[in-house]
Every structure is written in C-alpha cells, then in structure tokens.
Amino acid sequence: MTKKLLAMALLACANAVAAADKVYVANENADSVSVLDAASFKTLKPVTVGKMPHNVQVSPDGKVVWVTNNGERDPDAAPGHVSMNKTEHAAMAKPGAVWLIDTATDAVIAKIPVGMHPAHVALTPNGRFAYITNGGDDSVTVIDATTRKFVATIPVGKFPHGLRFAPDGRFAYVANLKGGTVSVVDVASHKEIAQIPVGKGPAQVGFTPDGLQAFVSLSEEKAVAVIDPATQKVTRKISVGSVPIQLFATPDSRTLLVANQGTRSKPGKTVTMIDLQTFKPVKTVVTGSGAHGVAVDREGRFAFITNTYAGTVSVIDIKSRAVVSTVRVGKGPNGVSVTP
Fold this sequence. Notes:
Layout: H1 3-20, E1 22-27, E2 32-37, E3 47-48, E4 55-58, E5 64-69, H2 86-92, E6 95-102, E7 107-116, E8 118-123, E9 129-134, E10 139-144, E11 149-155, E12 160-165, E13 171-176, E14 181-186, E15 191-197, E16 202-207, E17 214-218, E18 223-228, E19 233-239, E20 244-249, E21 255-262, E22 267-275, E23 280-286, E24 291-296, E25 302-307, E26 312-317, E27 322-328, E28 333-338
Antiparallel strand pairs: 1-2, 1-28, 2-3, 4-5, 5-6, 6-7, 8-9, 9-10, 10-11, 12-13, 13-14, 14-15, 16-17, 17-18, 18-19, 20-21, 21-22, 22-23, 24-25, 25-26, 26-27
C-alpha cells in the first residue's frame, strides 16, 4: 500500500470512529431515546421505543444500544407518565422488554421480552451476555447477546435496580433497592453467590476500571458505600447529596461522579466528584433539576448527566470540573450511555 493510500485509509477509519461517537438517553416520560453527537453535543433524531424506557446501554463493540422499557406503546395513549396512575400500573403489571437499536442507523432492530418492571441493562465486557434487572419480580434476566435468546433467570434481592459487571467480567453486582444489599452474581454459572449488606436504598453500583474498588449509591442515606471486591465487604461510606442515584468512575480510576437527584418536591441538582485516592469529595458541580444518570466517555474527558426533572443533559468537563454544555432532550431523561 502506498503512503497516500495508507493515509487515506487511516483518515477514513478516524472519521468512522468520530462519526460513531454518540450519547444515548432514555426519556422515561416521552417513550423515546434521545441521540446526541458526543463531539458537538448536538441532538440528532430521537428513536421511538416502548413504554417508559428507563435505562440504556451501548454494547462493548459500540454497534447496539439496549433499552429497558415496558413493551409496546398504546397508540391512543400519551407517551410517558406523570404519576403512578392506572395506566402506568397496568403497564408495569405485564412483563417488560429490552429493545435493541442499531447505532449505525438508529433504528430498532429487535424486541426481547424480559421480567416484570425491568430497570437496568448491562452487558458483559466481552459482549456475550446482557443482564437485565427486573424490579417487579426480584430477578435478573440473562440474554445471549448474539442469538438474542433467553438464557436464564437469576433470583436476587428485593427490587433489583442498577447493575454493573466487574472489569474482568467474572461477577455482576446488583443493587437491591428495597433489600439493602448488593447481590454478587457469578457470570460463569449465572447464579447469585452472595449478598453484601450495604445500607438503605442501594440504587446503582459501579467499579473502578482497575477492578480494585466497587461502589453503591445509597439513595436513602445521602451516601455512597465503598466495597472491597476481594473481601466483598463495605470498607467506608462517603457523604454526598440528597438521593444519590447513578455513579460512574473515570477511566483512570481516580475520580467517582455521583448524581444527586433529590425528590420531586425538593429536587437535587448537583454531581459530587470524589477523589478515589483520599475518598473525599473534591467538587460539587451544579447541573440541573433531578440529576440522575451518569456516563463518562472513553477518554475520561466528559461526563454526561441526565437531569430528570429539567428534561436536559449536562456535560461536565472532568478536568475543569465545570459544566460546559446543557442540552435539551425528551421528558424525564433517566439512563444514559456513551459509545465505547
């Protein structure tokens, strides 16, 4: 290959990667997924999905977005929900689903039934399996990500919500919102092997990329619990804001970002940035009303925060610890994920 052809090929590859960098946001009150260009922070065309989409996760290869929701929309009903009314109760009384979106076309390509009231979805680091928490029946559904077929149902703690995999892919940690525990699931056997007592209202878990620390937000304690994965015990708690929900560690394993949602009557609007060497908060960044979801890009340059009550996404420059952009999305933005 000539130098000119090699340069053209490298440029084409670079452009392809840049074009694929997107941020996906589940708009729970709009029955849609917003798509943002990760470089310009501009919104692209949204994707219509099922009822009350709660969480999104881009696959490790960046090709597919997995979205938890409550199945097909009623074409005669308004999208989303405002309160726990009869319509919402009826929707959550039926098994939910995960819908799959092709990131190349941003079109829905598959719909897979799961359990009752699905909350979060995560994929194993090798992309082989998808795990979905079912808050309505205290279980995790396992799907083969290649065949898109059901593999197993794993009983866990009470009202499982957030989940993530350890970086080595051996274990999944599941936050049991009403159980006060984190379930440890062995991925090889798809079985729960332990429950770690953590505190009140565990909402979401996370790991440092080096695998040395795990975390869980305690939505009823204004705190984050730090877990030693080696001993599977809580080593300390760190005070944060009101009703912490999602959290995410930066790629260098040095900083943890925690979104403090607050309540609808007293909304939180901050993200606590924690130094993972000292385990102390080093900055509280003001974002928007109902700060909820957190995702960090692969370079560790930007964090994307969904503001549930404001209907926006705040972009935080991690180095400067400041908001550099606020983007309007759909109603009730909840989960957020960035292409890897």
